[in-house]
Structure formats: structure tokens, C-alpha cells
Specification:
The chain is α/β, with parallel strands linked by helices. Helices cover 28% and strands 28% of the residues.
Length: 261
């Protein structure tokens, strides 16, 4: 089974969802021309990520969700978008997978909130995984800071996920860690990882892009610099099987021992 994933590395129009969604439409037009079946955008890309500015929170019928569903339908492509979701007692940092017909396929709320910037003070953490399929390719969702927690990705591997999509707002000052974590999470689980990072300046940070798609052997298939761009890669489940047969590390795990230790 195979599907083509596109990564849209863009700069958000700070706090201006309509302007950013207009830019997203232009990206999707190019993604479709490039043969992508799914296009992944950065973390909270319509407004720009903020650990504190939760006034833009909206429900499932809000402006951003309506805009994303309309874009998916207009261009006939699945989308992974991210926004601030209204939730009680505090909003959630949420990613939504939308099918080409506008149907919501999966919803994921960021499990690990970025405490150094007090994201945990202003948001409610998620407590569940999210998976969906495109052309038989099973995808999981994580968000930015989640990359630092390998247990989450191991759970996805155990569920038979072929590719984990990671929308992010990862700043320039920690780009070495971004590259390391993206490659390590793919290699140790022998699946694909697609990291969609933002670029440009916001009141929160300076972002340098570096979006990438990594294969099950930890090799970077394609990557970006700091410019706005689109990346493409084919997710091939046969390649996962070949990588796992060539070096069958996962069956050598000692889950029974780990629990007792």
C-alpha cells in the first residue's frame, strides 16, 4: 500500500486565520498537482502557535474547521490541520485529520504540553491517541513537544501505524533537537515520520522550518530549509516490512522485563 504525503511548510499570518487559510489553499492546489493524497500543515498554523493566546479558541463548527473542511472538498485532498479547540476547563491544542470529502477522520489533542512556556497553564492536555487511514496507509498524529516522549510513538508502532504525522512550531534555537528526534522516532519504531514545522517570525519565536519526512531506517527522504515550501514523499508499507525484516529489532524488545524493572 502506498500514498503520497505532502508537507506544507508555511509562515502563519499571526492571529489572522482567513489570511492563512487563503495561503493554505494555494499550497493545496500545488499539493494536488504534485500528486499528494494528504497534506499536513504546522501546529496551529491558521493563527500561529501561542502558549497563552487562547482567545482564538473555537468549536468544531468554527471558522477554522469550516475553512479546512471546505478546502479539503474544494481541492479533493485530505488535510491534517491544527487549531486551538474550545474545551472545558481550558482549550486544547488539537490536530484534525479531514478526508477529501470534508469528513473528519480523526481528532488528536496534544498530550504533552510545553511547560517551559506554560502551555500547561493555559491548555488542557489530551489523553488519547488518534489514527486514520489514507489508501490503506495507517497514520498516527502527534504534535511538536510530543517528539520528546518516545513512549507515545512506541504505542503507535504497536498499533500498526505506518506513518506518524507531527505538526509543529519548533523554534530555531532547538533545530538540532528537532532533526534528532524526528530521525530517532522513525528509526527506533521502523516506520515513517513526517514533521511539518512552521517558518517565519511570530511574537512567540523565530522559526526556521526544517520540515522533513523520514523513512523506517531513519533516513531523511526529503527536507526543507527555512523557506516556505512543499515537500512530497511516498509512504510505502512494503518498505516498512523490508526494513523490519532486514533488522528485526522490535521483536527483541523485553516488554515483560521492562514492566518488572
Amino acid at each position: 500500500m502506498r500514498c503520497t504525503v505532502g508537507i506544507a511548510q508555511i509562515a502563519s499570518a499571526w492571529g489572522d486565520a482567513p489570511a492563512t487559510l487563503l495561503k493554505a489553499g494555494r499550497c493545496l492546489r500545488r499539493a494536488v498537482r504534485g500528486g499528494a493524497h494528504l497534506c499536513c500543515f504546522p501546529e496551529q498554523f491558521p493563527t500561529g502557535w501561542s502558549p497563552r493566546a487562547v482567545q482564538s479558541a473555537e468549536g468544531p463548527d468554527g471558522e477554522i474547521m469550516h475553512g479546512l473542511r471546505t478546502l479539503a472538498q474544494d481541492y479533493g485532498i485530505a488535510i491534517l490541520g491544527s487549531f486551538t479547540e474550545r474545551y472545558d476547563p481550558r482549550p486544547r491544542n488539537t490536530a484534525i485529520a479531514i478526508d477529501a470529502d470534508g469528513t473528519v477522520l480523526a481528532t488528536y489533542a496534544k498530550i504533552h504540553l510545553f511547560t517551559p512556556e506554560e502551555e500547561d497553564v493555559h491548555y488542557t492536555p489530551g489523553d488519547s491517541l488518534a489514527e486514520f487511514s489514507i489508501l490503506g496507509v495507517r497514520c498516527g498524529i502527534a504534535i511538536c513537544y510530543d517528539l520528546r516522549f518516545p513512549e507515545l510513538f512506541r504505542l503507535y508502532a504497536g498499533r500498526g501505524v505506518h506513518c506518524v504525522l507531527v505538526p509543529a512550531a519548533w523554534p530555531c534555537v532547538r533545530m538540532d533537537a528537532w532533526t534528532l528526534f524526528c530521525r530517532a522516532r522513525a528509526l527506533e519504531n521502523q516506520f515513517y515520520l513526517a514533521g511539518a514545522n512552521c517558518t517565519g517570525y511570530t511574537p512567540v519565536a523565530h522559526y526556521c522550518g526544517g520540515s522533513m519526512i523520514v523513512d523506517p531506517a531513519g533516513n531523511v527522504i526529503t527536507s526543507a530549509g527555512d523557506e516556505e515550501t512543499l515537500l512530497f514523499a511516498v509512504i510505502d508499507t512494503d518498505h516498512i516490512e523490508r526494513a523490519r525484516k532486514a533488522l528485526p529489532a522490535i521483536p527483541d524488545r523485553r516488554e515483560d522485563l521492562y514492566r518488572s524493572l
